[in-house]
Amino acid sequence: MKQESMQKAFMYPPRSQNEFLDLNKKALHKLGYDVQPTDLTFIRYLLSHPKKAIVILNWVEDRVYGRSYKTTVQYFFKMILLVIFSKICAKKVIWIKHNFRPHNSKGSTKRFDFLCKLYSLLNIPPISLESYFSKPSLIHPLYKSNNELIEDLGATEQKSTIEVLFFGGIKPYKNLDKVLLDWPPSLSLKIAGKCSDPSYTRMLEKVINERGLKVDWENRFLSTDELNEMLKASKFVLLPHSDNTMISSGSFYHAIGEGCNVLVNASQFGRVKSEQHSFVHLVDIGKISKEMLRTNFVSKKEVRKEVLACYGENRVVEAWNTVLNNA
Questions:
Q1: Are 261 and 303 a contacting pair, CB within 8 Å?
Q2: What top-level branch of life does the organism fall under (predicted)?
Q3: Residue 28 buriedness (CB in 10 A; 0-12 / 13-18 / 19+)
Q4: Per residue of the chain (327 residues), what is the pLDDT tens digit?
Q5: In angstroms, rounded to a whole number, what is the distance separating the alpha carbons of residues 215 and 206?
Q6: Which residue in 153, 172, 258, 305 has a CA-CA distance of 20 to 30 Å to 311?
């Protein structure tokens, strides 16, 4: 499809290391959209072509935390202007709401709440990545293409060397401290991820040492290739996130794309996914045992089959098509 004949879409943030944005750009491209960043060209285009483009906003209300006070204030007013400008000048604004509350907030969520209220006042409804939160909803893309998943289905199953894996940035909302207080001492746990908070790191290490847990923690940032290899070698991934924090989880979709079973707690996300899929297990951390894991394990091949059917590229494109055409 020629660039000139494609519809214009602008996506925020304009730059990110999160592959999620690129995967959604590919899905939108299949629907005939030329997706560009929200930079100066975006401002010029909307001013000269009012109501001709759509704007897709990700993490706007989340990004006003985790910075210095001065930068935070600047970002807050910048985000207010971005939302209002988009509403006035764009044909349609898609607000993708990722979280119930900001991950980097140290208590107050007033700025987050204000931006959510602003969306509401401007009649911009939240669109989530999970149908339990919004209808219509998008589908979180997998971090593997359909062809890669099909190739994995035909490959020889490699031996799993990691029983349970906890991965990603180590932050309090992920509940790792609570997990370690209840984790069975007889069961091994692999932790792969950087904790940037020294006091939280010390607290976690203290629990591990005092309880004599079989925990192997690689406290560092892992490359994508390293993480993928670790997921391939893992039977189960542990996702014990606090309830009412995240609406969807990129870690979940990354893990299931590599055929992992997932252990979840009784968050809204966890309950919904455990009802949807045989490979998602709602667990009480203190009652996890080798026997329970052995009995409930679903083979990686079966996981991948189900994942491909539910979250493959075509499903992501279909969901976008529904959201874009929804009045």
A1: yes
A2: Bacteria
A3: buried
A4: 555 678 999 999 998 778 999 999 999 999 999 999 999 999 999 999 999 999 999 999 998 886 677 788 899 999 999 999 999 999 999 999 999 988 766 678 999 999 999 999 999 999 999 999 999 999 999 999 999 999 999 888 888 999 999 999 998 889 999 999 999 999 999 999 999 999 999 999 999 999 999 999 999 999 999 999 999 999 999 999 877 889 999 999 999 999 999 999 988 999 999 999 999 999 999 999 999 999 999 999 999 999 999 999 999 999 999 999 985
A5: 12
A6: 172
Q: Are strands 126-127 and 261-264 parallel, antiparallel or unpaired?
A: unpaired
Spell out the residues 6+ positions from residue 70 whose beta carbon is closer than 8 angstroms to its own.
none
Please report the DSSP string for 61-115 in residue order: TTTTSSS-HHHHHHHHHHHHHHHHHHHHH-SEEEEE--BSS-TT-SS--HHHHHH
Strand partners, 192: 167, 218
List, as one string, the DSSP characters of 138-199. --PPPSS-HHHHHHHHHSPPPPP-EEEEEES---GGG-HHHHHHH--TTS-EEEE-----HH
Neighbouring CB atoms inside 10 A of 305's CB total: 15
User: Which residues are CB-neighbours of 300 under 8 A, at least 6 positions away?
Assistant: 157, 258, 259, 260
Contact residues for 264 (Cβ-Cβ < 8 A; gap 6+): 239, 240, 270, 271, 273, 274, 280, 281, 282, 283
- Among candidates 25, 320, 310, 286, which has minimal Cα distance to 179? 286
Q: Which tokens belong to 23? A: 């995967």
Rounded CA separation 94/33 (Å): 14
- CB atoms inside a 10 Å sphere around CB 18: 12
Residue type, 135: K
Q: Which pair of structure tokens corresponds to residue 193?
A: 């991820």
For Cα atoms 147, 152, 156, give the angle at the middle one, nearest 5 degrees. Answer: 150
